[in-house]
Amino acid sequence: MRDFNALLPLTAIVAVLTSYNCKVNGQTSQNINVFFINEIDNDPASKAVEVVETYLKKNAQYGLTLRIERIEANKTDAKDLLETICTKYAASIERKQPPHIVLDTTKSGVPSETVKSFTQALGLPTISASYGQEGDLRQWRDIDANKQKYLLQIMPPADIIPEVVRSIVRKMNITNAAILYDETFIMDHKYKSLLQNIQTRHVIVRITQGDRERTEEIEKLRNLDINNFFLLGSLRTIGPVLEAVKPAYFQRNFAWHVITQDEGEIASKRDNATLMFLKPVVYAQRRERLGQLRTTYNLNEPPQIMTVFYFDLALRAFLTVRDMIQANAWPKDMIYMGCDDYQGENTPIRNLDLKEYFIKVNEPTSYGQFELVSEQGKPFNGYSYVKFEMDIDMVEIRGGNSVNSKPIGRWTSGLDTPLMIKDETAINNLTADTVYRVYTVLQAPFIMRDPKAPKGYKGYCIDLMNEIAAIVHFDYTIQEVEDGKFGNMDENGHWNGIVKKLIDKQADIGLGSMSVMAEREIVIDYTVPYYDLVGITIMMQRPSAPSSLFKFLTVLETNVWLCILAAYFFTSFLMWIFDRWSPYSYQNNREKYKDDDEKREFNLKECLWFCMTSLTPQGGGEAPKNLSGRLVAATWWLFGFIIIASYTANLAAFLTVSRLDTPVESLDDLAKQYKILYAPLNGSSAMTYFERMANIEQMFYEIWKDLSLNDSLTPLERSKLAVWDYPVSDKYTKMWQAMQEAQLPANLEEAVARVRNSTSATGFAFLGDATDIRYLVMTNCDLQVVGEEFSRKPYAIAVQQGSHLKDQFNNAILTLLNKRQLEKLKEKWWKNDEIQAKCDKPEDQSDGISIENIGGVFIVIFVGIGMACITLLFEYWWYKYRKNPRIIDVAEAVPSGKRDKIPEGIILGRTEKHGNVKSNIVLRSRFNQYPSKTPKPRF
Fold first, then answer.
1. What is the dihedral of CA 860, 862, 863, 869, to 10 degrees?
2. Which of 74, 416, 589, 782 has its CA 20 to 30 A from that of 550?
3. Is the bond leading into 617 cis (omega within 30 degrees of zero)?
4. Are 459 and 512 in contact (CB under 8 A)?
5. 880 CB-near residues (< 8 Å, 6+ apart)
6. How far apart (Å, rounded) are the C-alpha atoms in residues 866 and 15?
7. Gene3D superfamilies, from UniProt (predicted)?
8. What are the tens digits of pLDDT across the range 325-373?
9. Alpha-carbon distance 176 to 810, whole Å?
C-alpha cells in the first residue's frame, strides 16, 4: 500500500485529501471548490466574494474552506469566454478538483448566456445573480424539472429597483414616460416587461455622455410629447443630467422621478426643481451586521446594496453546499464531463436538490432578506429576489442645494408591489399635470374667442373638450393655427394648417369642425365622430321687400288715384246739377213725395256723401228720385265696383310679392344660372370637393375621348360609342370654373360680407359647411339657407398618428354619447344660444298681410276720428257763438190761447225770483223763416 501511494501523483494525493473533512484548530472544516465567473467591471461582486473568503477564514465556526477559481467574463466575445471557462474547467478535472458549485455574477447578454449554456450542458450546480425574469433567461428557459433543482437564479436589487417605475405609473396614472438609465442599471430586458399591460406610452433610453448630448436627448424626448421623466442611475450621474435639462421642463406640467441604488443625497447645480427621490434603506435589525462588515471587513464598494447582496448570496451558496455534504445529500460519485465530451444530449444526470437546501439556510442577511419561491409548481428562477425597502422623498432643489427633503412614503421591493404613501397631497403635487397642446381654427359656434373664459375660448368644441378632460384627466392649452386652415395638401405633398402641426409634433390635438377626409387619415388619426354627418349647403341673402304703413296706397299709381279723385268730384257735382234742375227730383217736387219714408234732398253736400259711401259695402243710401240722377248713380256704382275689385286683387298680389320663393332652390339651380356668383372658402373642404369633382369629370372625359377616337376599334365597336348626347357630365367643371372666376373668399367674414352686399344685379351665394351656415342664419336675420346638404362627412377630433389619445378619446366620446351629453351640447349652441337673433323666419310667416304693410288703414281711422272730433268742436262753437240765439220766458213767447204752438228759433226758459233766466229747452229751427207750405216752382 505504501508503494502504491508512492506512485500516486501529487495532484491525486491532494484530491484524495480534499475529499475528506480536515480539522483546523480542533474544528471540522469543509473544503469547497468554487468556480466564480464574473463580468469585467463588476467590482461589487468581486469585492463581495473576496470579503466572503476572508469572513469564512476569520469565522472558523462555519467550517468552510474555499478554493475559488476566478474567471472574468468578456462582455462581447462569447467564444473566447467559453474557451477560457472550458480550459480552467478541464484543468480542475485534471487536478481532481472539479467545482462543487458555480457562482455566476454575470449580469446579462453574452456573458450571462455563455455561462448558462456551459453550466446547463455539463450539469454543474450553479447559483446565478443574472438579471431578468423567467422569460429573459433564454438558456435556462426550458430546462427540465431535474435541472431546475440545481440551476438557480436570484434577481439582484439592481434588477428589482426598476420595478418601482411600474408602481409609480400605476399610482399616479401616468400616460407617458421617459426612462433614462446609466451603466449601474441594465434595462435591455425591461423594454417589453416593465410597463406591460399598462396603457402608458414610454421610451427607455441610455443616458448619454456630455451635457450637450444630454440636452439634445431630453429635447428629443420632449418632442415625443413626454412630460414624465424617470432617472435611474448613480448620484454622480443624476446631478449632471438634471443640470442639462432646460428650466422650462421643471414646470407644473412635468414630473421628475430620481431612482438610485446609492444611499446619499442628490447634489446638483439645478436652480429650481422639485422631484421625487427614491433610494434603498437598510432594515433596522440588520444595521449592526452591515456596520460590522463595513468596518471590520471593509465591505464598502458602492453601491452598497449590490455589494452586500453579492456577499449574502455567495455566503448562502457556500453554506448550502456545506449543509448538503454534511447531510450526505451531495453525490460522492458525481461525474464531471469535459467540454469536448459534450455531444448535445449527454448531460450528466444530477441527483441533488440544491434549491431545497438553499432555501433552508438560516444564515442572517446583511441588507434585506431573500424572498425565495418555495411553492410547488411556481418557477424559482425569475421570481426569487432580495426583499428590501426604498424611501420615497419629495426633494426641493433651490440654488443648487437640496433645501427641503420631505418623506412621503416607502416602497417594498417586488415584481408588482404598490407604493405605501403617507402623504397623498405631497405626491399629488409631484404629479405632472398632463397638458396637451391643442391647435384650432375659429369657427362659430364650435370655437369662439371669449376673454372671460378660462382658456380664452368658448363654443361647442370647448365644452366637448372639457367633458373629455374630466373623463381622461388632463389639461390643455389652446392656440389658433397661424394660417387658419384645417389642413390641405399641395401638389408637392406638403400639408398646411392643423394637419401640419400634428405631423410636425407641434400639436397633440386638432380641435374644431374638422371633417374626416381620406387623405388626412394617411398622415394623422381621427377619433370616433363627435358630430353627425355634415354636408355642404348654400347660403344666400334673404330677399326682403320694403314695408310701408301706406303700402296699400302704392297698389295704384298716383295718376290713377288722381283720376279716381277727379271722377269722384265730377260725378258728385254732376249728380247735384241733375237733382237741382230735374223737375222730378225731390227738392223740386216735394208734394209728390211727401208720403215717402225716405225724403233726401241731394244738395252738393249730400251728393259728395252719396258718392263716397257708394264705394263702401254699406252703400250710399237712398238714390235720387229723378231718372237722370239714378243713371248717374248707377254709372258711379259700376265704376266703383270695377275700381274696388281691381284694387282688392292687386293689393293681395302686391303684398305677397315679398314671400315669393328664391329662384335658386338647389345646387342644380345654382349651376344652371349665370346671374348669381358663387364660391366656397379658399382652402376649405368644400373647395376641395368641387375641385376634385371637376378633376374627376375631366378624367372621365379624357377616358371617353380616348375610347371614341381610338382608331383600333372596329366599326361595330365604334358604333356603340356613337351617341347624340354628351355622355359625361360637366356640371362640376363649369361650377369650378365659375367659382374661380368669382374669386374664392379668403375667410368666412369675407364670404358673409359678399353675401350681404349682394344686389339683384350682382348676387352672391356662399357654399360652406352646413353647421357654419345654420349658425350664421340663426344669428342673422338677413341670411338664409338654400337647398339640401350634399357631400356629407362627419366631424372628429384629430390626433397625431399612432397617438395613445385616440383610444382614450374614443372611450370618452362614446361615454358622452351614451349619456346624451353631445345632444345637450347641440341644444345649447344651436337652439338655446343667447346670441340667437330674434327675427321672423320664412317658415314661421303665415299667408296674412303684416301690420307693417296694412297699418296705414288704422292711421286713416285715427285721422278720421280726429277730424270728426275737430268738426264737433267747430260745430259747437259755430252754434253757440255765431248764431246768438234769443232767450225769452215761456209766457212771452206763447200768447194766451196758443200754448200748444211754439215758434221755432225760440229758447224756452223760466224767470226765477231774482230775474235770472235758466234755459231748459233749446229748439233749433232749420230755417230762419217759416217755409211756405207749397214750394215755389223754379220753372
1. 140
2. 782
3. no
4. no
5. none
6. 144
7. 1.10.287.70, 3.40.50.2300, Periplasmic binding protein-like II
8. 999 999 888 888 888 888 888 888 888 999 999 999 999 999 889 999 9
9. 18
